[in-house]
Design goal:
single chain, 365 residues, alpha/beta, Rossmann fold, 7-stranded parallel sheet, 15 helices, 13 strands
């Protein structure tokens, strides 16, 4: 398959960029000669794609919809024509054989430009309920790939083919040993360990609750805490140092794998990326979905936890004492932990990246 080109479109958050790393790796594994491009805004760092040899073509961020009133809507409308022309010219210059739209506002203009140029389009939807971008773009798609089977009814018969593949997860360090994981994090674990995951943007409410119960937690457990880059300084300022705590704004790929391997349970949000990482590493979890109008996390959590792979808590009414009680009760019961780990592994779709890569290569022929 000489001189073939695949274009990835998306960006905006880690949830719309990091799965593309897994896809790019899989494409290169199946066909090292393929050229892979990315088109989208760089509001979340794209260095992880650059490291995989993906050629980055940045566009200005435009068309972002906010779930609250803002005068920035006017600025988004002003930028749209320029961003579309920019996207169109980039797609023309690349001349890809197939385009993967990963969702988010960052994918809309490049995918539309590609469709106008007669390119083959595949969309990947990470969440249980599709986002606005993929709902709109689905009418132009040749193929839609889903993370959750529950998503299929939302697309109906709009596209010739819909496949459930899961959400691609970076699994390069899936087989780290405990000693390698401890060395990676420079952190030794001798007690049960909790990994508190704030995601790439952080989870302020979860961080605030953890700060309230931290003195109780460190009596019995060791803590790995990824606060999110937006919240790290505030959290660090409000807590005292303790040898049983590893705190960081963000974890790189190897550090994240190490945190999963060392922990006995994860406390965090219910983004699709987090859910499929938990499943890949077979980790019990307490999920606190972000609640907002039109949000996807409560439905992600429901789809994942329905087989017993996780405990979900409703953020609106969550108190520090309830979270502490849930953590203590869960970690005290090995039967619950073993069942959750077993069900998480059953849910896992480790081959999602390879499946998506194969669909792209087939369409590129």
């Amino acid at each position: 398959m000489p001189n073939k080109k695949i274009l990835l479109a998306g960006g905006g958050t880690g949830g719309h960029v990091l799965p593309l790393v897994a896809v790019a790796r899989a494409i290169k594994k199946l066909n090292p000669e393929i050229k892979i491009y990315f088109v989208g805004p760089e509001e979340f760092s794209l260095d992880c794609l650059r490291e995989e040899g993906v050629i980055i073509k940045k566009i200005i961020a435009a068309g972002k919809l906010r779930r609250y009133f803002s005068w920035l809507y006017l600025w988004e409308l002003i930028k749209l024509p320029l961003a579309f022309v920019q996207s169109f010219l980039i797609v023309v210059s690349i001349n890809p054989d197939v385009v993967l739209g990963k969702g988010s506002y960052g994918s809309v203009l490049p995918v539309l430009a590609a469709k106008l140029l007669g390119k083959k389009i595949i969309l990947h939807e990470s969440d249980a309920v599709p986002g606005l971008a993929n709902r709109f773009l689905s009418r132009f798609a040749d193929h839609i790939a889903l993370a959750f089977q529950e998503t299929k009814p939302y697309f109906g018969s709009r596209t010739p083919k819909i496949t459930t593949v899961g959400n691609p997860v970076r699994v390069r360090y899936l087989d780290l040993t405990k000693s390698e994981a401890e060395e990676t994090l420079s952190f030794r674990t001798n007690k049960q360990t909790i990994f508190i995951s704030g995601g790439s943007q952080g989870a302020q409410k979860i961080n605030n609750i953890i700060l309230k119960i931290l003195p109780e937690l460190i009596k019995d457990y060791e803590i790995i805490w990824s606060t999110g880059s937006n919240n790290y300084t505030d959290v660090k300022h409000r807590m005292s140092n303790t040898p049983d705590l590893k705190i960081t704004p963000l974890l790189n790929e190897k550090e994240l794998a190490a945190a999963y391997i060392l922990c006995d349970i994860v406390v965090g949000r219910a983004g699709s990326g987090t859910i499929f990482e938990l499943a890949a590493f077979g980790k019990p979890s307490i999920l606190i979905p972000l609640e907002r109008k039109g949000g996807d996390q409560p439905l992600n959590a429901r789809a994942y936890a329905q087989n017993g792979s996780a405990i979900t808590l409703k953020e609106t009414y969550l108190t520090a004492s309830e979270l502490l009680k849930t953590i203590n009760k869960t970690l005290a019961d090995n039967n619950i932990l073993e069942k959750m780990a077993h069900q998480a592994k059953k849910f896992a779709k480790i081959e999602a990246g390879e499946q998506l890569a194969q669909i792209l290569l087939d369409l590129a022929k």
